[in-house]
């Protein structure tokens, strides 16, 4: 399963949920599939998708929105693994972190991350997250649906192949505009 195949499944299940997505190829590919106001693309903010989603999930406690979905990469999560400890400690009920793990830095020449030897799902479980796994679109669809059920924090560890989709344009929108669009969408819910 390529990244864009996994993102296609996630797009199907997140039309009405806030989605905070990591930078570079992941944001570009998600926007190429569907550029929606509920997507917050963290352009150039590597390592912060889980942190921002944690804050949004805490802020939405008591609201009608059931889940906040962070889409993170393995290189990015290794940059800021404190996301796992913070989520395990604060236990935001609505937080779901989807890790697209290809074991490489996909936006910088596929240099290997630590993922081949360090299991980020096991780290999340050790910190108290409920962890699910998927490695193909059918399993991802089923496990994502289960991970949307109440009770968090939840961690969906998705193994994907290295490689970026071809022909995907750069995402050159001003981050201020993207942030405002996301805030307006949230306020309208
Ligand atoms: Mg990666």
Automatic annotation (TrEMBL):
This is Thiamine pyrophosphate enzyme TPP-binding domain-containing protein. The keyword Lyase applies. It comes from Nonomuraea cavernae. The keyword Lyase applies. One of its GO terms (molecular function) is thiamine pyrophosphate binding. Keywords: Decarboxylase, Lyase. Coiled coil: none annotated. Gene3D superfamilies: 3.40.50.970. Residues 37-158 form the Thiamine pyrophosphate enzyme TPP-binding domain. Pfam families: TPP_enzyme_C. PANTHER family: SULFOPYRUVATE DECARBOXYLASE, SULFOPYRUVATE DECARBOXYLASE SUBUNIT ALPHA.
């Amino acid at each position: 399963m390529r990244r864009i195949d996994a993102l296609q499944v996630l797009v199907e299940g997140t039309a009405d949920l806030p989605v905070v997505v990591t930078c570079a190829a992941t944001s570009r590919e998600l926007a190429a599939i569907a550029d929606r106001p509920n997507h917050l693309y963290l352009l150039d903010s590597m390592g912060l998708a889980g942190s921002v989603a944690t804050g949004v999930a805490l802020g939405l406690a008591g609201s009608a929105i059931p889940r906040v979905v962070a889409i993170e990469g393995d290189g990015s999560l290794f940059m800021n693994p404190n996301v796992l400890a913070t989520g395990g400690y604060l236990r935001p009920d609505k937080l779901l972190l989807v890790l697209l793990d290809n074991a490489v830095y996909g936006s910088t020449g596929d240099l290997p991350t630590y993922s081949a030897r360090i299991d980020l799902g096991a780290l999340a479980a050790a910190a108290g997250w409920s962890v699910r796994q998927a490695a193909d679109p059918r399993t991802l669809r089923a496990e994502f649906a289960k991970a949307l059920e109440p009770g968090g924090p939840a961690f969906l560890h998705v193994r994907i192949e290295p490689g970026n989709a071809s022909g995907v344009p750069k995402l050159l929108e001003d981050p201020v505009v993207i942030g405002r669009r996301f805030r307006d969408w949230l306020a309208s819910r």
